[in-house]
Amino acid sequence: MSRAEVLVKPSPLWTFGLFRSELITTFRRWRTLALLGVLAAVPILVGIAVKIETGDDGGPRGGGGGGPAFVSQITNNGLFLVFTALAATLPFFLPMAIGVIAGDAIAGESNAGTLRYLLVAPAGRTRLLLTKYATVMTFCLVATLVVAASALTVGALLFPLGDLTTISGTQISFGEGLGRAFLIALVVAASLTGVAALGLFVSTLTGSGIAAMATTVGLLITVQILDQIPQLHALQPYFFSHYWLSFADLMREPVYWDDLVKNLGLQALYAAVFGSAAWARFTTKDITA
Question: Which pLDDT does position 286 carry in this prediction?
Answer without folding.
Answer: 65
